[in-house]
Amino acid sequence: MDLGHVLHLLIPSWNSVAILALFFAYLAIAGSILPGKVVPGATLPDGSRLYYRCNGLLSLLLLVGLLGFGAKMDFVSLTAISDRGFELLTTTFLFSVLVTLVLYAAGCKSSNRGSSLKPHVTGNLLHDWWFGIQLNPQFMGIDLKFFFVRAGMMGWLFINLSVLSGSIQDGTLSQSMILFQLFCALYILDYFFHEEYMTSTWDIIAERLGFMLVFGDLVWIPFTFSIQGWWLLSNKVELGTAAVVANCLTFLIGYMVFRGANKQKHVIKKNPKAPIWGRPARVIGGKLLASGYWGIARHCNYLGDLLLALSFSLPCGISSPVPYFYPIYLLILLVWRERRDEARCAEKYKEIWAEYRKLVPWRILPYVY
């Protein structure tokens, strides 16, 4: 594929704009009207709390059903996304730039002094645009940060499903493609099944909404996490039985660590006296969980994330580094984020954090890092 052809494919079209607009419109309407558990967010510095309607799983399943019906009636094409992958990438990127510029301008004009909307302006335009200046900006009553995370996770699944449809139509469906699709679908469905856990993550409770988060949610997650599927669409990989078993074990262990660690932290935040692995939880200073997975490594959830990312790439074999872009990138990102987390926690918890570090010396992988 020559450079000129690639550049031509990157040019947005009205079709790609329409797909993106319809997707966002559906999510806004479905998120507002479909039933779901209303979950209180973390208590903000001013004592206020935001509330989130966790109906992402229902919204996702309903949209899958609507698209399936539309395809059967020839109203929509299941390969519409995979046929326009590059132009959708550009369209979504341009939308991310535009919406974050609007967020910056609106934030600068805001006079709200509440924790969720109070502007944090450094005076450095690039810094403020990149990291954002408001914690939880809203549009028509919709919490944009929560909305964009949901859109990115769903977008990842629908890109994968469109690639799968293209593979079936081309007659190139392989065992590798099935494994990749299965692992990703299980991970994404699990995310939405436990969507309320997202409300207690660092991104939601502490990071302001700027280009970094919007681009990460809308562009990076769906378009880079699906690289393996695009690669398998044009590359055939034959896996042996041992490779399949190893791949499945990597996914299962990664899922067990990732979901188990996040669930333990969420449960303890709701009920500090809840048992962990059948024993009373050890909480340092009444704030830092040091039991279960969190007694093994201080950022054990990152280990689960890394194993899951690796399991998404292993179906592609080892003939090319391209399908391993996601786990390599994630390793770099999580080590960088872990360093930021360590600095923040040391400043926030002080001697409590020092005690926790002595009790749990390993950062992510025991006896290695």
UniProtKB/TrEMBL annotation:
Transmembrane portions of the chain: 6-29, 50-69, 89-108, 147-168, 174-193, 213-233, 239-258, 279-296, 308-336
Enzyme class, spelled out: oxidoreductase
Gene3D superfamilies: 1.20.120.1630
Lineage of the species this protein comes from: Eukaryota, Viridiplantae, Streptophyta, Embryophyta, Tracheophyta
Gene Ontology terms: biological process: sterol biosynthetic process
Pfam family for this entry, one: ERG4_ERG24
Membrane association type: Multi-pass membrane protein
Main location (coarse class): membrane
Metabolic or biological pathway: Steroid biosynthesis
GO cellular component terms listed in the entry, alphabetical order: endoplasmic reticulum membrane
Name the record gives this protein: Delta(14)-sterol reductase
Highest rank taxon of the organism: Eukaryota
